[in-house]
Amino acid sequence: MKKIAVAGTGLVFPLLLGYSTPVIAETQKPVSERQMIAQAVSQSQIETFAEIWFIVRNINLLALELTSRVLRSEGIPRERAVAIVEGFSNLDDLEPPLTDQEEQTFERVAPLIRGVSQFRQLAVRDEIQKAGLTVEEYEEIRQQIGESEALQQQFQEVLQRLVQEQ
């Protein structure tokens, strides 16, 4: 996963762009192809995407914190609670696997966690739509940024400017 350091904040954010191809493969593309991809997304779209990205990131962090707190309130340590929340969609792959006690706890609080997850999904969709994009358009811009070094650079510059303006 690629990370972005936001200048002047000391913060490093994981760039949640869902790369579909390895970054190394990107460097092998002809320059003209990269430029064509970059031209497909306007500066205005990148700025809108970055503004939404900040909001979506905050919604996701809030949902993670809420679900982690639910598990911690049941006696599960923070690190383990975060691992369980991050592996929520496929607990069978969780390492180490859930203990019997953790599984019982999780089954008891799963409805609360699902509620937070549903709230997160609705809030993200609403914020994307408030910005004038459809979820599909947002995802297309996300994918294009993930596939283009030039767009990633533009995106990082917009993020840095947004942080400085706050």
Can you offer a commentary on this structure?
The chain is mainly alpha-helical. The protein has one domain (3-165). Helix content is 70%, strand content 5%. The protein is built from 7 helices and 2 strands; from the N terminus they run ββααααααα. The chain has helices at 23-27, 31-40, 43-73, 78-86, 100-130, 135-147, 149-165, and strands at residues 3-6, 11-14. The chain has a two-stranded antiparallel ribbon. A hairpin with a 4-residue loop joins strand 1 (3-6) and strand 2. Helix 3 (43-73) packs antiparallel against helix 5.
Count the DSSP helices.
7
Topology order in helix (H) and strand (E) letters: EEHHHHHHH
Number of strands: 2
Shape: elongated
**Percent helix range:** 55-70%
| Unreliable spans | 1-29, 31-38
Question: How much strand?
Answer: under 5%
Structural class: mainly alpha
Strand order of the largest sheet: 1-2
Radius of gyration: 18 Å
Largest sheet: 2 strands, antiparallel
Mean pLDDT: 77
Number of domains: 1
How many angstroms does the end-to-end distance come to?
Answer: 26 Å
How are the SSEs placed, and which strands pair?
Elements: E1 3-6, E2 11-14, H1 23-27, H2 31-40, H3 43-73, H4 78-86, H5 100-130, H6 135-147, H7 149-165
Helix pairs in contact: 3-4, 3-5, 3-7, 6-7
Quickly describe the structure.
By secondary structure, the protein is mostly helical. The protein has helices at 23-27, 31-40, 43-73, 78-86, 100-130, 135-147, 149-165, and strands at residues 3-6, 11-14. α6 packs across α7.
